[in-house]
Model the fold of this input.
Amino acid sequence: MTGETHGGAKHPTLTLVACILASSLAFIDGSVTNVALPAIGKDLGATPAELQWTINAYLLPLSALLLFGGAAGDHFGRRKLLIGGIALFTFASVLCAIASDLTLLLGARALQGVGAAILLPNSLATLGHAFTGEARGKAIGTWAAAGAIAGAVGPPLGGWLVDAIGWRSIFFVNVPVAAIAILIAWRHVEESVAKEIPLDWPGALTATLSLGALTWGLTIWSSHGAADSPSIVALVAGGLLALIFVGIERHRGDRAMMPLALFGSRAFAGLTVLTFLLYGALGGVLLLLPYVLIEASGYTALQAGLALLPLPLGMAIASRITGGLTSRLGPQWPLTIGSLIVAAGFALLILVEEQGSYWTMVLPGASLIAVGMSCVAAPLTTAVLATVDDRHSGTASGFNSAIARTGGLIATAIAGAVIASAGAALIAAFHAAALVGAALAALSGAAAFLTLGTVKPPPR
Done:
């Protein structure tokens, strides 16, 4: 391959394969677990609030440590951290599969989140180093498409495993994928490092505590249906810790794991807002949809998994195309139009009822969401990497992924009000959640339109 296709990597294709397999671990796990929630709740006797923590125990360390995972890769070496993250994620997956009670499951899920926080930003930063120019956009588009395929395989595969074998089997799916990813990364991925970037331990600790307090407070609030003293105290503490985190990052300047100078780029700030709103809405609605279909509409886990199939398949078909187009056209219009299409898809989910045909109550909304997200996924990632220099690529990709997972984390924490409902009340609560998701997606489109004129790194 020539210099137009990669940035000096000897094995760019194998590098791409290793990064796809690594990130697919996190994508498969997220989609599979959503389908398995009702079965986990029945087997372990979990309440609705505890079921929320099955998701949040994973998302919390993933959201809080993605920044640190990206910065650690920039400092110690992205290949080294990529392999270590895969190994930790796999070990935690086995612990999830053999967990004998909910406490052990939540602990293993948290360890999975730590592994994912290490492997995700370093898989993307490794791609950013191995490819340049238009080839980078195509590679990232392929990476996003493969992630969508993994998401497509996850729900039906997970649903079949839950129905045929049991929910524990879904965590063993990660083991063979991880083994192949480690082997390829060990033998063919080249090391890349930017050692002048120091690690930010105070920032990582403060971010983790802040997100933990905010998530705890929102989960208690939504599950109880009202704000009480513990939830208010947790939310106030989380807010104060967030302010302290910003103060720490400002004091550390370019040594921070989230350098505030990155926000000198208007485009980077706009991409951050878009990511938080859009992926928060997506995470919340896609957590609730299979749960509602199983609990209120009588779907099996396999049927609920198949119901989500149009979304990731549609993304997989178009993401590679849109990744290449963004390199030539810029990200403003794909991200704006895509977000508005997603908003329309969310709004159509109000057609979901206790009784009805899948083809009329689920497929229209899922299809529109698929079309919209195919316009967003690859262009968003490409645009984020275009706003920073190479030495901050791991930090920037980690930050953007952290924002996406933080949006999903907060949405999951709030979703307890829906999960705690039953019957007609569950359907009504889901309709309200779908409309809120539509509004957030529309706002993300406005953010893209207003901020993404010219995408370039901020001045140093």
About this structure: The chain has two domains: 12-199+257-451, 200-256. The radius of gyration is 20 Å. Residues 200-256 form one domain.
